[in-house]
Amino acid sequence: MTFRLGRLRVEMPRDIAEYTSSLKFDQEIYREVIVINAVHLKMLARLGHLSGDTLARGLSALREAYGNPLEKGDPRLEDVHMVVEDYLVKAVPEAGENLALGKSRNDSVATAIRMRAKSGALALMESAIVLVEALLVRGVRDAETVYPATTHHQTAAPATFGFALTHYASRILSALNSLVRAYEELDQCPQGAVACSGSTLPIDREWLAEQLGFKRVLAHALDASSSRDFAVDILSAALKLLIVVSDMAEWLIHDFTQGLLDMGDEFCSTSSIMPQKRNPVLLEVARTKASEALGEVVRVASMIQRRAGGYVLDLQQATPSIWRLLREAESTVRVLSTLVGTLRVDAEAALRRCGMEAGMVELANYLTLKYGIGFRRAHKACGKIARILAEKGLTEEALLRVCEEEGIPAKLTIGEVSEILDPRRIVSNYATLGSANPSEVKRMVEEMGRRVMELRAWVSENRRMLEAVVERAFNAQAL
Fold first, then answer.
1. Residue 159 is inside which H or E element, if any?
2. Cα 138–Cα 353–Cα 434 angle in degrees, nearest 5
3. What pLDDT sits at residue 14?
4. How would CATH label the architecture of 106-351+442-473?
């Protein structure tokens, strides 16, 4: 097809055509482009510009191309849109010659990208939901397994392993809420906006949106045909998810190397020279993904913000970032969901890490509530006790001295202090909403489980809408 030669005197040399062509990454939207063209032929038939016979033969040819991908080796055709048009011109000339009537590559590629990104977003959400479910299952199982909560990479207070795991489940659910909002931005149909300003053909854009599986029309033609702001939304939501995943991977690596927990050998590797090593390689790769995602977000944002008016070819260079990031995010959460089930806590090591110093705030609370001492004075006394524990070990004499120095009207004994600072006792006495108390962890698991069910239903509904598009698109009777 020599579509350039009306305005231009010469055809583009092959090396330049290869440089500007998007064919090398257009396979991501190949099937979406076929479907869009099928629906557009039906639109032309509705308007009376194609006969019923031509429509039927055109849809049959496009269905064949959908199932048996066309060769995309000629860069002079620029992109997948021209490959499909060239094919249809040869297969059904009456349909192919009119394929660009009332349709531009600008609105079609924007629509195809949104369709493909919706499918990728749903796949990511499905895998992330599985990860949340794995975390919630372990959250219940380990709701009473004493485990340290940390701040500043140091033990801060006694908690449980189930509490630590459900922390990440809660954050992932927040990220999934962001993905839902980004999906709603994606779920607006650009088709029918044409090149930039609409068309003199009375194209029914609401019908097009419905046929292509969109809930709404993106009305403004220039916005619809050229903007890629939606890419920042979906990539940022995926980045938010991967920030949580990277955090979780770093935490697991840290506690694995500290001997607090272990994982299945299938997620580890060994050294090529040091046979004793068990390296947490899967987690080490997983914790890089937020950085990689940030790079893709920056790449896209920097490309799409240099534009005056409508479409420019810069925009095609941004789309590979969408596919890379959605694919990497989905595969990362998928493999992590299998790792979670293999985690094993060294209960004795975790209990030791939640030693007497970890519960000092509870001792300060005790002194304030039992003896009426101001909390700040109790805090100071407990700081001194913590220092004695760290430096030389606690004795009855040292406890008595602290009580005298801080005006505590009681003679604390090591037995009394040990009872108050027992991590199991502290965990079972937590009384606030969202605490590490095992009963509260289980309540939060139930609540998060209900949100998971809502998200599963939402994903299923949108998946059904996408799956219905293909069969409907090639049905010549569905006008």
1. strand 154-160
2. 45
3. 76
4. Up-down Bundle (1.20)
Determine what percent of the chain falls in helix, strand and coil, rounding each to the nearest 5: 70, 5, 30
3-state secondary structure of 86: helix
Judge contact between 100 and 201, C-beta under 8 A. no
Token pair of 5, please?
Answer: 């030669």
Domain 3-101 has CATH 1.10.645.10: no
Cα–Cα distance measured from residue 130 to residue 122, given in angstroms and rounded to the nearest whole number: 13
pLDDT of 382: 94
Task: Give the pLDDT means over successive 10-residue stretches in the chain (479 positions).
Answer: 60 72 83 97 96 97 94 76 92 95 95 97 98 98 97 95 98 98 97 96 97 97 94 97 98 97 95 91 96 96 88 89 97 97 96 93 94 94 92 89 88 91 96 98 98 98 96 88
d(CA 358, CA 420): 11
Q: Alpha carbon of 32 to those of 36, 52, 76, 81, 466: distances in Å?
A: 6, 23, 21, 10, 11
pLDDT for residue 311: 87
Terminal CA-to-CA distance of the chain, rounded, Å?
30
Give the number of other CB atoms < 10 A from CB of residue 382. 25
Torsion angle defined by CA atoms of residues 154, 158, 161 and 162, in that order, rounded to the nearest 10 degrees: -130
Alpha helices in 341-437 (DSSP H): 347-353, 360-371, 375-391, 396-405, 414-420, 423-429
* Residue of 143, 137, 211, 135 whose CA lies nearest to 479: 211
State the Cα–Cα distance between residues 220 and 296, nearest whole angstrom: 27
User: Which tokens belong to 23?
Assistant: 């064919």
- Pairing, β 216-217 against β 188-189: parallel
Task: Compute how many other C-beta atoms are within 10 angstroms of the C-beta atom of residue 360.
Answer: 21
